[in-house]
Design brief:
It is found in: Membrane. The structure is a single chain. This protein has helices spanning 3-31, 34-37, 39-46, 48-80, 87-96, 106-144, 150-156, 158-165, 174-196, 214-225, 231-236, 250-273, 290-322, 332-353, 357-384, 395-426. By secondary structure, the chain is mostly helical. The protein has one domain: Up-down Bundle (Sodium/glucose cotransporter), CATH 1.20.1730. Helix 5 packs antiparallel against helix 6. The longest helix is centred in the first third of the chain and has 39 residues, at 106-144.
Length: 427
Amino acid sequence: MGRNEKKESATNMKEFSSRDLGASTHLLKSSLGTGILAMPSAIKNGGLVFGGIGTIVIGIICAHCVHILVRTSHILCRRTKTPQMTYAETAYAAFFCGPKSVKPWANVSKIFVNVALCATYVGGSCVYIVFIATSLKQVTDFRTGRDIDVRLYIVSLIPALVLLGQVRNLKYLVPFSMLANIFMITGFGITLYYVFSNVKSVENVKLSAPIEHLPHFFATVIFAIEGIGVVMPVANNMKNPQHFLGCPSVLNITMTIVVALYAVMGIFGYLTYGEAVEASITLNVPTEEILGQVVKLLIAAAVLFTYGLQYFVPLEIICNSIKPLIFNHNYAVMTETLVRLGMVIITVIVAVVVPKLDLFISLVGAICFSILGLSIPAVIETVSCWENHLGSFKWRLWKNSLILLFALLALGFGTWVSVLDIIKYYK
């Protein structure tokens, strides 16, 4: 490499570091949430060796699906001469610009993606509620010496959730997000202290799990790693969108960090607590210690403060969808307020119906994230490349067919096993 090439490479790396750090931070924040705390439970359901390798493989598949979604969106933007597209608009453009036989499905695809986005975020919000309530229950029950039903803790969260759900401008959520980041980082650091100070021998854990536990493993890992809902907004708001893909890129660097952190937390968390590991690793932190109580309350507060941001996307989609249906615009504000209130109450009701964290995570991962994060990107790329762009021997078609098959297996078996476990829970 010549001097000029080296200088140009160094300049590009400097430009990448300064301009794209914010995008990487947003992508990391969207992927590093409650999901990473569930990774030891996922490894328990997969076994130490199979789970560790499986986490890396699933991470690669998820990153690839993000890659093809963003790349297809950029191609469709050039084809339609559109500056940028959302996830739903990308699906619409793929079908509209695709073969004649699929053009009538363009509007349906856009609606389907928006519904999938709403369902995914609503499901994630329900997981947040159950997590907060379970953490509060552990601390409060220990301090009071009473065993209070977790559903009462869920209901007690309604006032805070309603207020967060009524926020209609993201700038008002910034202070909550800042506090959430501080609380999460602090709680995460203390949790790592407990994990790495009590690591047990490999002899105390399973290297591979029974086959009936694997659907829970796949569903939990998909739930944990997937953050595809925020990918398009992050990519669209970058100063140089081309830096999102390629090598080095925001996507490759961020997903490498995410998958590595998830694998490390999952493996060492499982080694520390073995078969006794809970749905969230923080629930294993000793409640009788003051530091353990602080961890649970800090992360519970962080998740609560993130609820407004998590629920912002589906509420915006739903409210924008119903605005054209309001005949008298004098009632628009009141209607939106009631819709936001109703959606929050729905998440509380669902959380009350299924108040067990591991079952909820597995169910949401199997149904929502397997569709939104795996199936839809594979279909979008296939449709957009159908005419003369499938590659030699139509390799993109075969590749996306395998991704779709994997997603459907995760959807089918994950949902089936989760529903059976929910039925057993009520028995």
